[in-house]
Amino acid sequence: MPFIITWVDQPKIATETVCVATPFSPLSLVTVGDVVVATDWLSDDDLDAADGFPALAQYWLEPTANIPITLKSCGTLHQQRIWRAMCEIPFGCTVTYGALAKRLGSNPRVVGNACRANPFPLLVPCHRVVGASCSGGYCGHTEGSWWVLKQQLLAFEQRCF
Q: How many domains does the chain have?
């Protein structure tokens, strides 16, 4: 569990967007002060603008180190509950949509929808939630570059675990 997440309400300061290089795809972070309010994977065309969040650079060098990150509270109460549960999935491990749903008294489709609505890909590790017989989707996609990105993230964690 490398990211130590603190959830807060959004402070009233202007937003800034930074782009961070990762081994797989650039990641944008929208911040308000030191609070991350959203993340999003970008295309490789955006890579030239990358390199602005030192904590994430540390993640790729030492992925099991604890890295404190402050995220803006958002989503429904049930989504927040699912996202917090995702943050408890250990680095290098996966859990099925069904198992997570059972643990939370929910259902797999609701868990999948919360994964799709996750505003913090990578930081809230929805990539660690998989199907019972396949790896499932990523960011609402079950094929293409998003699915490949999920496979790369899972493989990265397995190599470092």
A: 2
